[in-house]
Amino acid sequence: AQSVTQLGSHVSVSEGALVLLRCNYSSSVPPYLFWYVQYPNQGLQLLLKYTSAATLVKGINGFEAEFKKSETSFHLTKPSAHMSDAAEYFCAVRGTGTASKLTFGTGTRLQVTL
Amino acid sequence: KAGVTQTPRYLIKTRGQQVTLSCSPISGHRSVSWYQQTPGQGLQFLFEYFSETQRNKGNFPGRFSGRQFSNSRSEMNVSTLELGDSALYLCASSLKQGPYGYTFGSGTRLTVV
């Protein structure tokens, strides 16, 4: 079964600082990996996705993630945090065929301080 | 184009009642999935429909059911509501099964009292 683990349920950074949210996956086959963001009282918004085309994936709002097979990781980064980035971030893995459901990590709440 | 539309946004029900939630996917999307989100359990997969057929089901009791219509709109039903069913129910649609990201709706907040 596929799964993802997000390290750190809460991360706090200063505005302008680097954002690093960690995600490790477990999959017996090359996975499809996703990062989603959720703002209060809203649904999930897709930030970016990895589908084996390129290991460095650029997403919306200046976020990017690098797929590292040797480390089974797909960490999310942003060079400079903005107050509007404060939200909850979810890493997810999706299988293929009949196992195409999304399996989410437990989420990381990002706090951005002045 | 219009996003995924879920109705209603908020719902308060009494224990023992049943509830039906509705989801209209993005036009052209044929895959619809449902997720339950709670503070304790996080995001949990309920079921997935593709072309009116249930393709995948999560580990939820039979009180939770769903269906998809020929226009890809989907409904989920929860019978004999329990307090623990209070959650944000999210619907997501995708073009088709495969390496495609899901687009989520804003969810239906169900409170069972």
Description:
The complex is a heterodimer of chains A (about 110) and B (about 110). Chain A has strands at about 5, 10-15, 20-25, 30-40, 45-50, 55-60, 65-70, 75-80, 85-95, 100-105, 110-114. By secondary structure, chain A is an all-beta fold. The model of chain A has no long low-confidence stretch (mean pLDDT about 90). With about 110 residues, chain B is mainly β. Helices cover about 0% and strands about 55% of the residues of chain B. In chain B, the strands form two sheets. In chain B, strands 2, 4, 5, 6, 9, 10 and 11 form a seven-stranded mixed β-sheet that branches. Chain B has a four-stranded antiparallel β-sheet with strand order 1-3-8-7, with no helix packed on it. The model of chain B has no long low-confidence stretch (mean pLDDT about 95). The interface between A and B is medium-sized, with 26 and 25 residues.
List the defining traits of the structure above.
heterodimer, A: 114 residues, mainly beta, six-stranded mixed beta sheet, five-stranded antiparallel beta sheet, 11 strands, 0% helix, 55% strand, B: 113 residues, seven-stranded mixed beta sheet, four-stranded antiparallel beta sheet
